[in-house]
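Dear colleagues,

As part of the handover before I leave the project, I'm documenting each prediction I ran so the next person doesn't have to rerun anything. This entry is a single chain, and its sequence is reproduced below.
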Amino acid sequence: MEDLWPDNFNLKDNIRTPSKILEEQGDILEKKTSGKIQGLLHQTKSAAMANDIMEYHFGIYSKTLNYFYSFMSIRHKIELYPVEITTDYEISKQLQWRSEKIEATNQSEFILLLSEIFKTDKVTQVIAAMFAQS
């Protein structure tokens, strides 16, 4: 039987998906807060998936308070990038974005935007309040 596939699929082991990056950041947050606050990622099962769109919501969770604060979502096609980031209004205002949505065209841009989001007053204040009550 003849092999009709290309010799090289350009497969790379070092690519981290947007969802993997968020999962890693959730783990880091849990360690930084001695397990009191977790970063949680939930995949949305919606009509978007029928259109080749992957969608996730990310937020922080306190088991003690049984409280979840969802402050961002991401959407991308199976090819991973570009990835659309949607934050809540207060965060986008603090970052001086024109809207709650912004697009990262590659992994480096995505990581930079996450760093900016995580360091906003809104996110740090919510984490501090959840930590104090946990």
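Residues 18-133 form one domain. The chain has a mean pLDDT of 92.

All the best with the project,
I.
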